[in-house]
Input
Amino acid sequence: MQDLVLLQLARVKGLLSFSQAADSLSVSEDELKEPFNRFAAEEWVAETPRGWRLTPVGRKVTADLIAQERESLDADAVSAVYEAFCTVNDELKATITAWQMRDAGTPNDHTDAAYDQSVIDRLAQVHEQAKPVLERITAVAPRLNHFAERLDRALAKVQDGDHTFVARPILDSYHTVWFELHEDLMAIAGLTRAEEAAAGRAQ
Amino acid sequence: MTPGTDRDASGAQWVYLLDGAQNLSRELIGGKAWSINWMRSLGMPVPPAATLCTDAYAHYEQTGALPDPIWRQIVDAVAHLESVTGRTFGAGPRPLLVSVRSGAAESMPGMMDTVLNLGINSQTCQSLAEESGDPDFATRTLALFQNQYRDIILGSTDGDVPEDVWQQLRGAVEAVLASWQSPRAKAYRDHYDITELKGTSVTVQAMVFGNLDEQSGSGVLFTRNPGTGSKEPYGQWLPRAQGEDIVSGRMTPEPIATLEQKLPDQHRQLLELAGTLERTAGNVQDIEFTIEHGNLWLLQARNAKRSPRAAVDFAVQLCEEGLIDEREALARVTPEQVRQLLKPGLDPAAVQSAAIFATGEPACPGIASGVVVSSADEAVDREEEGVVLARPTTSPDDIHGMLSARAIVTELGGATSHAAVVSREIGVPCVVGCGRDTLSPLRGQTVTVDGNSGDIYQGALPVVQFDESADPVLATLIRWAESLCPIEVSGLESPKYDQATDIGPLAHDLEQKLAGVENARGSALESNDGIRLAVDAGLKHIFVRHRLPAMLAAIMTHDKR
Output
């Protein structure tokens, strides 16, 4: 496993536990001990009661590794897949909002099962639109290959009836994973969230 | 042979006429057909219809096709529709067109919904053009049907739509039956553990045309206002349109008041019929109607969905009008609806004089005050002080700070932004999109965030609790609930509060904690589960913030036993 995969996961999650990293990346916790012990020895990560956290040095190392990675990628291909991602992004965000709100002033109290199911169906449709984009992303930036599987898993959990996997934070819910993917895409495209938010694309 | 009393060789009846002559259960014929039969039994103008009952589904499933004895009963039913409408299925001069609809005992996503205008082909299109005197209308109807048939039944945009109307009908009926096992419908039944349903019914109904001419239209009428709870009927309609046009949102409907101006007789008749339906059902109705060339037709009636305010208002109105008794009135209101109404708000007097620092889009309702911090780490570190996290935007690595904050505000982003989505998941008041550089100057200041209005005020403003006994409608419900409640429920201000045992929050060991307790207080009692356990444990007296939701939950528990 590339160091950058783990470091970047720690960065986007803020705090990262072994079990969480193992779940997200579909590896055993044992496989993670070696790299994290090494990161700790280098003082890239620090252990807190709630999990690993990047140190300022670790943030710098992560940013440098991403910059190196960016150099090695085809910049035109990266911006093309980022554009493709953005076209699906709006619909995904509207779908998640529909899950939470019936309309602008009415929170979804999840008592209307038919409504909830219609939003779940909509999420599945967005996922179908996202699949070819995810394939392109993996082709351009192989490090991001874990996202497709994580999104598949989140949707499957939702369809199995565990609705916390729509948007619950920290948990690898569809919205959590999608947002982490967005972070990574901006990183390899050399964009910042503030710039993208101002352009109305990453809020 | 008389259709509707038809039997096959084994004596089984699969198809029922929905003429209101006999009482047919929801389980047997599905919700939509039930509503048609009910309205017909009251003598209301409903287009003639027949339904293939839910028992038939099992026979379809065995072979994957409609067995002939069942199909023959459908053909007989269509003959009956022909005779009562004076029209002919598949031929002029007055062709019969029908709609085909699914209908389980409860509504379910993933089921094939509706095919309209079935029975039109190149020949009957010609007849329809001559009959209506409007060739455009006939051509539109043909195109609409063919598109819908391809879309819903053939599942491809270039499939061949049969010219033979019986083939059309058989295809549509089988498509409805097949949709019972669609992945969406199955997933839905699995998730909500619906195992007792036998299948879907299929209803075939004579078409009426809301898009025929200027004396036509379609609409929806609520017998009372489902948003505000006022007694006035509320509705919308679209002149010269079919019902689907309202549902789809393709056209903007007009308020029902314009129907009164344009077609006053039909408006009056509609209100009369609606009143009868409401009185008979003992509940506020949501009614779909169509006017065809000046004739009013009702297509469906069901209990209306309603806002929390409307739920409490309707319950008291209907009881005071003698339509339901007090026990039923209380059963019509959920504890959640009352809790929703009683959510605390800012003191109006304080709001008047407070300075507004910034305003954005409300993203998660609720009110909180705290010191503004500008990073997630600072929010975590200063959590104890009570902080408001202010960021240009939030991203996943801010989540720990968001969890530590009492409120979240952002400069950029809208209702679908990361901050908005996450705040709603974790129930933290949130205002987004306050504008670039509006929040960074607030660092270190104490503010109050109103997630309902989107305003951020200077200082910590007082929050006031709503007094349930000051609202006359809630006070009435409280009075009724007192005589039915299996447990004594008092407010926190009660002098006996201090002597009650504090059972703390809802936790897995609550049942043990309740053992031997007679009088209890504690946050567990602010939830339905806590109340249920308290009633089951035989407690005598509980103390809660709001009495009405607790009493409703206690009555609910008691009635379920």
Observations:
- Residues 468-560 of chain B form one domain.
- Chain B touches chain A through 43 residues (CB under 8 Å).
- The CA atoms of residues 33 and 136 of chain B lie 32 Å apart.
- Chain B is about 40% helix and 20% strand.
